Amino acid sequence: MPNHMKHGSKGRYTVYALMIAGLLGATALTGTLSHAGTGATANSAVSLNNAPAAGFADLVETVMPSVVSVQSKFTPVASQDDEEEDFSDPRQQFQFGFPQGSPFERFFRNQPGRDGGAIPQPHRRNGTAQGSGFIISEDGYAVTNNHVIKGASEVSVKFTDGREFDAKVIGTDPKTDLALLKIDSKDKFTPVKFAADKPRVGDWVIAVGNPFGLGGTVTTGIISAAGRDIGAGPYDNFLQIDAPINRGNSGGPAFNLNGEVVGINTAIFSPSGGSVGIGFAIPASTAEAIVADLRDDGNVTRGWLGVQIQPVSKDIASSIGLDKPTGSLIAAVTEDSPAEKSGLRTGDTILKVDGTEIKGPKQLSRAVANLKPGTSVEMTVFRDGKQRKIDVSIGTMPGGKHAAVIRENQNEPDADRKLGLALAPVEDGEGVRVANVMPGSPAARQGIRPGDVILEIDGAFVDQPEAAMAAIRQSTSKSGKAPVLLLVKNDRGQRFVALNIRKG
Length: 504
Hints:
By secondary structure, the protein is α+β, with helices and mostly antiparallel strands. The strands form six sheets. Strands 17, 18, 19, 20, 21, 22 and 24 form a seven-stranded mixed sheet that branches. Strands 10-11-12-15-14-13 form a six-stranded antiparallel β-barrel.
């Protein structure tokens, strides 16, 4: 992955970095909160009056004893680079990417216009790294980010009054980047609570943490947005905040005006490595459930359906007869999974789970994962032009697995080219093999590549090139403009592809 990209005629370089907030240095948000007076409504005036007239000092005094600095020690790995790296150049600090395939590496790679970009790795001087955390029980359980303590040989926490204790890692959940610690002490500590009420966009937040190792630092701002999907994992549902957070804030709490934790500061997006006003926090509703699971047995148990899913594009909706692009299309069903046992099929579109509308794959993944294994739910699916209800008994997610989400190709094919595929038989298998793809064709634009296997065309199984071409000709001779729907398989799984093909 390249470590920079050229910007402007003067040859300046800008590093576009998504930085994990502590270990990886979450920087966010330098923006100070301002409110336009001329356009204020009566409601906004009431909201602003909820801010303490004398500032946030009383609130900070209350919560500060519950916030800790987290220090992780790592077994040093001697290398010549450790002695010779020069971090005086800002670009040098960001030359190392995340491990290949990691959630944050995928997020940054997928950003439009970033040309791969560069993402900072933590610079661990003397084998240590620092983050933040907070106490949730009198007996010393504390929450932080998984990336703050991942791979650490020793973990300790330090309070603002100077007390320092060793801590044990009780459990971690990499999918949500959460970790639970237990302080090694018989002292009683001051806990804080997770907020029970869902925060609203525009609510005040107070972030407390350990930026740059300075300890007990307080910043304020508002919740800028909710439900953010930044590509960090299968269950993304971040709060976006503008309370400034920086390196070392990872794992620290974001409080509401009641002193309750509404989020855990985890990541930032920055074009320069500095604060730009965009930070991301794990919502309390997510964190509380995960932490409870970790405290029980050190593991997180999630519901499992056993399907590979993808978004429903406009073309796919048109192909299958849906009046709008919504729901999650099942591209494959895992053998002997809850989905297979309940009768769900490849090609079904899941529209609702227990009456709650499903607008896309991420929402379905979160909904199923949050269900207790063994729970029976009613799913509304669209099949063969009709809606039907299917009862599904949710299973237990096997280790490391989740509903695979296939991202829709963002480049819609032009409608003025023919299919552009050369097909060949598949030896000892189903479908027809793609032998060649014409550059610029609809198939190429939708990501079909040589070696892919086409299993179905408009719902009909195909096993010979001639049968495939006949099915395509039949589809293109239909009246109307519905695209041809292909079920394509490769080494990454199965997905549906809708192709607009010129008649003739």
